Amino acid sequence: MNISIIGNGAIGSLLAHKLVNIGNFPHLWDKTNNPIIQSHLINLNGKKTTHTFKANNSTLLIKSDTIFICLKAHAILKSMHVLQKYISYKTNLIFVHNGIISREKLNKLYPYNSKFIMVTSLAAQKLNLNTVRHTGDNFSWIGAINKSYNSQKVISRLINLNFIKLNSAPQIYNIQLKKLCINMIINYITTVNDCKNGALAQKKYNQLILDLSTECRNILEKEQFNIELEEILAITYEVIQKTQNNTSSMLQDKINNRKTEADYISGYFIELAHKHNLEIPLIISYHNKIKQLQERIGHDRT
């Protein structure tokens, strides 16, 4: 299988190394234009490995059977528009990102491609341009955006590669919504309070986590996804415990003066709340706090 990865951030780099472990050297595409990318991985045991990848080759991109798009949500539509001329209509497109972007816009850009969403619990941190640290290993789920005659065949092939713990998810939207809840709760509280994930286990955050979880759960219920509040809380605290030493992705964005994915996380929840006439004052409050942070570092200025 000829695989390319668009986006050489933490998850894109980690997936590249995971594929190498099964003997598949993917082609990488990033914003450097370098023809070769040397990438270092520090695994969960602290061992460092180095691999060299072909990169930014339009011919290899066109010949790809499958492309993983590992970009920030706010960069996907613009980047995929620019790359249209280098992507065959036969190529399977797998979107791996936080937040939720418009499926209608993706279908308009790539009407003939088989398109998939992959939701992952893999965790990684980019230490510098060429080094990534693997910080958490858990399950990932994949489901089709536009179900076609070969979508299940593509999913089965990817699962059978056995490069990550990957499961098929026919109801991938529900998986996205569940992860969106956890992302919002952990990312937003840690970013506003400048703390690592583990700090949220402190008693002083209990009520805030409960209130945010309740607002999230009310939105999910209106979207016909029935999930108990206790399940959201249990997953949230499990992630807090397992990633206690991690810096959340949104806090990393803040530290590095990067634009956050707020419009595709809390922004998406706000859209759903308006659609269902729901009151979500706490989510709106935290959304505004993150947007104010972005304005202070030069993003979101009109």
TrEMBL record:
One of its GO terms (cellular component) is cytoplasm. Transmembrane segments: none annotated. Gene3D superfamilies: N-(1-d-carboxylethyl)-l-norvaline Dehydrogenase, domain 2 (1.10.1040.10), NAD(P)-binding Rossmann-like Domain (3.40.50.720). The keyword NADP applies. Pathway: Cofactor biosynthesis; (R)-pantothenate biosynthesis; (R)-pantoate from 3-methyl-2-oxobutanoate: step 2/2. One of its GO terms (molecular function) is 2-dehydropantoate 2-reductase activity. Residues 3-146 form the Ketopantoate reductase N-terminal domain. SUPFAM superfamilies: 6-phosphogluconate dehydrogenase C-terminal domain-like (SSF48179), NAD(P)-binding Rossmann-fold domains (SSF51735). GO terms for biological process: pantothenate biosynthetic process. It comes from the Bacteria. Keywords: NADP, Oxidoreductase, Pantothenate biosynthesis. Residues 172-293 form the Ketopantoate reductase C-terminal domain. Belongs to the ketopantoate reductase family. Catalyzes the NADPH-dependent reduction of ketopantoate into pantoic acid. This is 2-dehydropantoate 2-reductase. It comes from Paraphotobacterium marinum.
